[in-house]
Amino acid sequence: MTTLLQQAFEKASQLPSDLQDQLAQDILDDIAGELQWDTTLAQSESLLERLAEKALREFEAGRTHPQGFDEL
Q1: Are 14 and 23 contacting, i.e. CB atoms less than 8 angstroms apart?
Q2: Contact 58, 64 (CB under 8 A)
Q3: DSSP secondary structure string for all residues of 15-50
Q4: 62: phi > 0 → left, psi -120 to 50 → alpha, else beta; which?
Q5: For 51-64, what is each residue's pLDDT tens digit?
Q6: CB 12 within 8 A of CB 20
Q7: Residues 34, 42: contact at Cβ < 8 Å?
Q8: Residue 54 and residue 1: Cα distance in Å, rounded?
Q9: Helix pair angle (45-60, 17-43), 10° resolution
Q10: How far is CA 36 from the centre of its chain?
Q11: How far apart are CA 66 and CA 72, in angstroms?
């Protein structure tokens, strides 16, 4: 365990029990989400590669144009 995480757990241990439980559930949910995201990315690597190649071909063919975040 890292020093920072250990410090966070020490601080959290000073909270009331209900807040500790909520914090613990939030952490467990975040970990589950990260693991799911890793699995999803690993399973879609070839799809993402094909999409990136297609986007590059469209860019090289001049069929794209720059867009700002507000224009999406």
Answers
A1: no
A2: yes
A3: S-HHHHHHHHHHHHHHHHHHHHHHHHHHHTHHHHHH
A4: left
A5: 999 999 999 999 99
A6: yes
A7: no
A8: 42
A9: 60
A10: 10
A11: 11
Q: Model's pTM, two decimal places?
A: 0.60
Extract the residue ranges of the chain whose pLDDT is less than 50: none
Confidence (pLDDT) at 69: 87
Distance CA 13, CA 20 (A): 7
Residues with Cβ within 8 Å of 13's Cβ and at least 6 positions away in sequence, in order, are 20
**Phi-psi map region of 50: left, alpha, beta (phi>0 left; psi -120 to 50 alpha):** alpha
The token pair that represents 29 in the structure block: 């949910």
